[in-house]
Design brief:
Elements (H helix, E strand, L loop, with lengths): L2 H21 L4 E9 L5 H23 L3 H5 L8 E2 L5 E2 L1 H9 L4 H7 L1 H7 L8 H6 L3 E10 L2 E8 L11 E6 L2 E6 L2
Parallel strand pairs: 1-4
Antiparallel strand pairs: 2-3, 4-5, 5-6, 6-7
């Protein structure tokens, strides 16, 4: 084997390894800002911003790691959540959708093969894959009240988002829960 060919193969392998390591890297999080839709309450925002950031990081980490049970900890047991922009469904229905590969929620979160086969565009992919390619996720918090907050996701490296809406969280018994999934 010639020395030039060996150097080319090593360089190629290094580039491929670098791409693999970057693409599979969990995102980092930062707060972009916070805003009030209703009455301003700076003290409440200062108190709640870190809690909301931790909740969103936990939600996205559960999606990236494909851990339905961890994601379920952010669904209120009594209220459930909105999973397909139609209406609230029970906790049990959310749990079922997170574990059923044929459900729309499962597909949106984790099924890249489904999107590759059915999407009209290559930039529509699972949330997991989108989050893994995001690099840094910047969070904008929009408070409707002291117990309801919309979280806008902005990606620093600007990967195509495909179909994505904002999270809305509700605070119940001192804890932030998903009101709706993206």
């Amino acid at each position: 084997m010639s020395g030039r060919r060996c150097i080319s193969e090593i360089a190629f392998a290094t580039v491929v390894l670098s791409l693999i390591l970057h693409c599979g890297k969990p995102p980092t999080f930062s707060q972009q800002g916070y805003f009030f839709i209703g009455k301003s309450d700076e003290a409440m925002a200062q108190r709640e911003n870190p809690e909301i950031l931790r909740a969103v990081e936990g939600i996205i980490t559960a999606i990236v790691e494909k851990k339905p049970e961890a994601l379920l900890t952010y669904v209120h047991p009594g209220e459930g959540a909105i999973i397909d922009a139609k209406a609230f469904v029970s906790y049990a229905q959310v749990a079922s959708a997170l574990h059923e590969p044929q459900s729309q929620l499962y597909r949106v979160l984790w099924d890249d093969k489904y999107w590759k086969e059915t999407a009209p565009s290559d930039n529509i992919r699972s949330y997991r894959k989108t989050f893994l390619s995001a690099g840094e996720i910047r969070l904008g918090l929009f408070y409707y009240s002291d117990s309801e907050c919309e979280v806008r996701l902005d990606f620093k490296d600007r990967p195509p988002m495909g179909i994505m809406a904002n999270l809305i969280l509700r605070k119940r018994n001192g804890r932030w829960y998903l009101m709706n999934f993206f």
